[in-house]
Amino acid sequence: MDNNKRMILAVALSLAIFLIFNLLANHFLPKPKPSSLAHTTTPMSAPAAPGVAPLPQTGSARAQNSPAPRVTITAPDVQGSISLRGAKIDDLVLTRYHTTVAPHSPLVTLLSRPGHAHSYFVQFGWDAPPNANFTVPSANTIWTASTGALTPGHDVTLSWTDPQNITFKIILGIDQRYMFTVHQAISNGSSSPVTAYPWSRIRRDYLPKVPGSLIMHKGPLGVFKGTLHPLNYVNSRSNAKNKPDGQAFSTTAPGGWAGITGKYWLTALIPAPDETVTTAYRYRTVAGRKADDGAYQVDMVRSTPLSVAPGASASMVLHVFTGAKVLSILNAYGAQYHIPSFDKAIDFGILYLLTKPMFLALNTLGRIFGNFGVGIIVFTICLKLVLFPLVRTSFLSMAKMRDVAPKVAAVRERIKDDVARQQKEIMALYKLEGVNPAAGCLPMLLQVPIFFALYKVIFITIEMRQAPFYLWIHDLSARDPTNIFNLFGLLPFHPSALLPLLHVGVLPILMGLAQYGSQRLNPPPADPAQARIMKMMPIIYTIMLASFPAGLVLYYTTNNFLTMVQQWIIMKLHNAHRLRVSAAAEKLPSKG
Asked: Which of 34, 182, 245, 295 is least enclosed by beta carbons within 10 angstroms?
């Protein structure tokens, strides 16, 4: 009895801790606020090292915010502009994605200008070696554009000439989707050889509201020499701490790619496969802000400089991806430009061999049926069919457990005071009856990696973002919007504002009912305390999963319903078989 009380107390305490943590995390702990860059930013520059030229300073906020000529960007999937001050792509929206499910909500903004609260941009330039006798363009240089608009098939050339008649050019092109092609060229009109390092960088001057989690990577990442190197925002700060160059990670390798990723969006620098570059992740604090609210940067510098003889020209080609992490688009770009493991920009995680095939299956089914919710239901049915032999064995074992339950109860009643002997006789009884108590747990163990992988797929893949189902479910990647505690919107208050766990919608309730029905078909635990705990599980699961994405709850609801149907059919067949065996045994002649 003491053990039973301790078990009930442990479950109650665990649930209480979970409730209190959610209350504190959502209502009392401080939340990050959007940054403001109205003040001067701290320059972020690369270290001066042999063979690697330093990156330039960002420049003062006044210079950055002053009006400058711009070149418009117009393509089917992106729109924006390029600042001719410092050659920055710092204004970009994604034309196919809205911030909410409302059709007229604002478009998603990916890149924003310096001085904006969410400043985020891509910049290009050169550095000269020490003691160079020529001038390179600075962060405040005003470039000259060959035309006022960049469109697919119509490139733009930015140019600037120094006093020694050395012309620096940035030739920008864009395709129909999210890829920029950038040629950084030098034309030497002087009488002396010129040596310069082309560089490019992505800079994010703020920390996102949700900086990442165990389920999802956000921050710098890249692939070098075939290996993925992610570094989240927290580790970027800690690795760069007390380093004058702000460097959190650095490597020199041919090809590859590097950038900064969010949940659904990616900005990445992609050198040519045979181009050796030095890539660094950096973090710098910003004046007037907290230490954890600084600027993050990923930069690339050509490991060897471009050497240009008098009267000659030289260039380096680079590609810049700025867009949505759609797997088919990443795969297409990876094949076209020989980008290694570009699909790993999507965080499929340690269960990559399970999550990626699962996503491909869901994506295919969603496109076939025209609805990802229907795809999830069909996927669950297919999964049930594949696992049916194992499930059948499990249910038959549970049926035998139900049959032998009266004999187990008799053993417990007969041997009350000797627990060791009691367990020994029960195990002997299980062996005699051909019952394996652990067999019923195997399907549940298999559900754990499937549940986690499906949660990951629904949570991180943009194909599931704002994907509607039917009726009240308009976004499978968000929780069920209905709430039983305010009578599904009839009462004029939202109880989840007080406590997030009070948000329980229709779909989680259906899931809980299906789980309860499935549980009723299982033999009750012999221990009364365990039986009481099991009766509480559908309620606990309903409350816990109510905050999960609706697509995951839809899977669990379908799975529980199919499990209940399977159990009922298998139990029916088992009982019929047992009656036939009993009838046949009664017809046998007695030994007397």
From this structure: 34
